[in-house]
C-alpha cells in the first residue's frame, strides 16, 4: 500500500510540475509578438490578439483563444477581414496516454469574415498566397502511407459553432450579401455511432432574405468509408418584395448516404414542399469518374405556377414591349460551355401543371445532359381532352448553339386551348397537329428569325369564330339585288366538318398555301401569311356554296359561285371582309355562261338538232 501511495504522490508531483512549467515558464503570451510579426511579414496584414492566451488542464488539456482579428489590405472599407470572439478546444488528458483522442469540447463563437471586392478589382485575398507556398508544398516529403493513428479512437463530446458571419461586399456593383450561421451543434460523436446535429442559417441578399434551419443524425463508419445522414429535415423561408405574397416557404425531408470507397452518393428526398406544391424524388451521384454522373428523379402532385409568375395587368398589351428608348446593348449568345462538364440524366413527373390559364396533366419528361448536348428524349402530357408529345435537342458545343424539335398534338379541343394559352378565340374543333423545326442562336430576336419549321394540321367538327360566312354571302346577295335593309343579327361563327392544311415557318413568317375547309354548305380554300414577330395576318380565302343556305336563312342562288374573302389585322383582333366586286364579277360570269348555253341550245334547234 505504501508503494501505491508513493506512486500516486509522484504522479501528482509530476503533473503539478508540468502545469507549473507550462503556465509559468512556458507562457503562451510570450509568443504573441512573434506570431503577430510573422503574420505581418508573410502577408502584410496586421494580426490582433486582444485577449491573453490561456491553458486549461486536468481532467482535460486545452487552449482558450479570443479577441483575434486579421486585417484586410490597407485602404479597404472594412478594416478587418477575419475576427474571432472565442475559440475553445479541450482534450481529455488521460486517454492521450493510451493514444486515444477524446475531445470534450470544441467551441467557435463570433467568427466574422469580411470579403471585399474594391472598385479597382482588388480583393481581400490579395497577398495571402505566395509562389513560395507552392514550392514549399512541392518540396515536402510525401507520407509513406503508414500511420500509428487509429481514427476509431477519436471521440468528440460536442461541437458548437455560434454567431458565424460571412459578408460579401462588392463595391463594383454596390451590393452586399451577408450569410450568418447562427448556430451549428453536434452532439457526442464517435465513429460507428449516431450523433445528433442541428443548425440555423440566415442570409441577407440584395432582393430577399433567407432563413434555413434543420436537424438530423450523422453517422460515420468506423472505417471512415461511409457517411450517412438520417432523419434530415430542413425548413426554409424566403422573404422579399418580389416573391409571391412576399414569402415562399419550403420544407425538405431527406436521407443521405455517401460511400467514399466507391465514390457514390445517394440523396433520398421523401418530401419536397414549396408552399402548396408537394413531391418527392432521389438524386444519385457517381463522382469517381472524370465527369461526375448524376441521376435525378423527381415526382410532384399538382403544380400551380401562377403565384410565381408576374401578374399581367388588365388591358396590358400582348405585343412585345417597346424598348427603343432603352440603352441599346448588343445581345450576346449565352455561354453553354459548362454543359460539357455535366453528365446528368433527369426524369420528371407531375400530376398537373398550371401556368396562367393553361392546364396540362400527367407530365412525363425524360432528358439528359452529356458532352455539351441537352437531349429531351420524351415529354408527354395530357391536355384539353387530347395529348402532347415532344422531343427536342439543344447542342451547346459550338459558340452559336443549335436546336431541333419534333412535336405532335393529338385529339385536342382547340378552342379552350387557344383561349387559355393565347387569349385568342377564333377556332374550335378536334385538332391534330404535327410540327418539326430547327434553328440556331438563343438570342431572343434570333429565335424568331432563325427558326425554320414545317408541319400540318387537321381539325374536325369545329367552327371559325368571328365570322359568319353564310350570313356575309346572304348580305352581299341582298345588296347586289338592291335590298339595302339591315340583316338580322346572328352569331358570328362558321361551322365546318373538316379543316386541313400544311405550313412552313421561315424568317418569322408563317406561310399556309393549302388551307381547305369543308362543310355541308360551303367549300373554302385559302392561302396567306402570318407574321409571328409583328403578330399580324394577311390571308385570302375563296368560298364556294355547294348546298342550300336555307338552313341558315338563305337560298341556293349563289351555288357554284366562288366568293373571295380576306382576313387581316392582328392575331388578337382579326378582321374579315367580303370582296363584293369579285363576287359581282363571278355572278356576271355565271350569268354570261348561262346565256351562252341558252343561245347554243337555240342554235342547235334551228340547225335541226345538230
TrEMBL record:
Coiled-coil zones: 578-605
Segments for region (Disordered): 126-149, 308-334
Top-level taxonomic group: Bacteria
Keyword Coiled coil: yes
Pfam families membership: AsmA
Keyword rRNA-binding: no
GO cellular component term of the entry, any: plasma membrane
Residue ranges with Polar residues bias: 316-331
Biological process according to GO: regulation of protein targeting to membrane
All copies of domain AsmA, residue ranges: 2-175, 203-514
Comp. bias (Basic and acidic residues): 126-147
Keywords linked to the UniProt accession: Coiled coil
InterPro entries xref list: AsmA, AsmA-related
PANTHER family: DUF748 DOMAIN-CONTAINING PROTEIN, PROTEIN ASMA
Protein name, UniProt field: AsmA family protein
